[in-house]
TrEMBL record:
Coiled coil segments of this chain: none
Lineage, opening ranks: Bacteria, Pseudomonadati, Bacteroidota, Chitinophagia, Chitinophagales
One MF annotation (Gene Ontology) recorded for this entry: hydrolase activity
Superkingdom as given in the UniProt entry: Bacteria
Protein name: Alpha/beta hydrolase
Pfam families from the UniProt entry: Abhydrolase_1 (PF00561)
Record-annotated AB hydrolase-1 domain positions: 28-140
Amino acid sequence: MKPVHTGYATVNGLKMYYEIHGNEDGTPLVLIHGGGSTIPSNWGTLLPLLAGHHKVIAMELQAHGRSGDRDAPESFEQDADDVATLLKDLKTDKADLIGFSNGGTTALQLAIRHPERVRKIVVISANYKREGLIPGFFEGLQQATLKDMPQPLQEAYLEVHPDTGGLRIMFEKDRQRMLQFKDMADDQLRAIQAPALVMGADRDVVRPEYILKMGRLIPHAHAVILPGTHGAFIGEVCTAEKGSPLPGIAVALIEDFLGK
């Protein structure tokens, strides 16, 4: 899908790539991708379904895709600050957020750190506790190398940024962030005042019971579990199933939530 506008913004010393899609007079809707992703690889299926009713703002975070890097590790807090600064630069006072996987954790941090920028949040397949991930996740990641990164994600990165060195840096920074993942306190989620829709899959990387727990902890939240694996119900490039009705179902649930 061709964007209405593309550009770069300097946010907290980082050159960040962003795109604007859809109805520029619509309610701003921010899409925050997961680890190792680009805008097309994460949102290629959902973006056209959302652009009809919203001014969709999508960006590529530190070290990802067409964005630059900084001489510092990645963190969910820094990503949240970067997105908040981008919204300020784009003169967007308040927006709805959809975050997938690591991007969902970033969306939680935005709601905690920059509540003035957030109207509603949709948190998809995101984690807030180490024990919320499936058994063996961290052990497998400890041994992982670039060759273990899903090939569709490698190809998607190189398509927009043909630099194998940058690809390796992104992989290592994503890997280190997850290996050093620190639990969020339950009280941090209880402090979120933005209405939230927490979504996950029944065979997700995040255990379904933790998706439901997040839905109970955030005061104004609903939770839903859909069938499939990590990213399948949004048509993410690694798990998309041709002809699946699930992305359409997910968008209908999201639109119903955002419209209330």
